[in-house]
Specification:
This protein is an alpha+beta fold. It is 45% helix and 14% strand.
Length: 312
Amino acid sequence: MNTRTVIHTECAINIYDTLFSGQSFLWNPVGSVTDYFYSLVDSTPILLKQLTVCSFEVISESEKINRRSISEYIRDYLTLDIDINRLFPSGFSEHYPELWKLLSGYFSLRILRQDFFETLITFMCAQGIGMHLIRKQVTMLCHTFGEKRSILFNGKSITLYSFPTPLSLAEADIVMLSRCTNNNRIRATNISRAARSFMDGALDPELLRNPHLPLPELRSMLCRNPGIGYKIADCIALFGLGRFDAFPVDTHVKQYLAYWFNSSNALKPLSPVRYLELDCEARTILNPDMAGYAGHLLFHCWRREIKKLRTF
């Protein structure tokens, strides 16, 4: 018997933009004409549906997720505790009025607090490729190495596949794993190594999640693992460790830093040194402790409003 929970928010939330903005690749629409989206969250199958600007529905087979009520867990998962007004410094709207008009339509996008291991592996799949191919790789990983699950919806069973366990990826046949990484044997090997590092404690999310750990040190610890550079490390920190100060820099971010904020550095090739320079620049424009959260809103706004991209 499914549990249906309606959650009301004090601020606007856009479920679609939140789930399909490039921070997660594990959500899927139910068919092509419904407003429901499904995934496994903390091993629990759930569906989400937007109801109003400030409310949404959660369908689950359980009244709790990881011993917490559905409402409490999902509010935390969708970072409804974060005040969007904290993302930008005072005077930002006056200094960038045209950008502010565009950006205001994306204040309903929320960063997800995602599972560390899932985020680690999915963003190791994401290196240097577009969102459609990332989603394809992650889907193949789940179908090949995850477990088949289901949830009833309107009398029909929806099939889901759990994210692979660390053990399944650590022990995976590299040839089979590489089929899930666009036949990239090096990437598959790096993913298997990362899974082993997670299992032996070298990649300890509790240690990495320490809020007192300086971001450069956190980034350095993640980058010790083959297949993780600065950008992937910052994505893992932002989306998988709740480090909202982590500011991933990719091609789109370089472009909006140059276009909206007149960064001359952003017009130059992206080297490790320049990456860190752009990271510092972003912290002079945005509130430093929330630069990554704000940066993701800017990233999604740039892709939609300037680049006119609609795929995810």
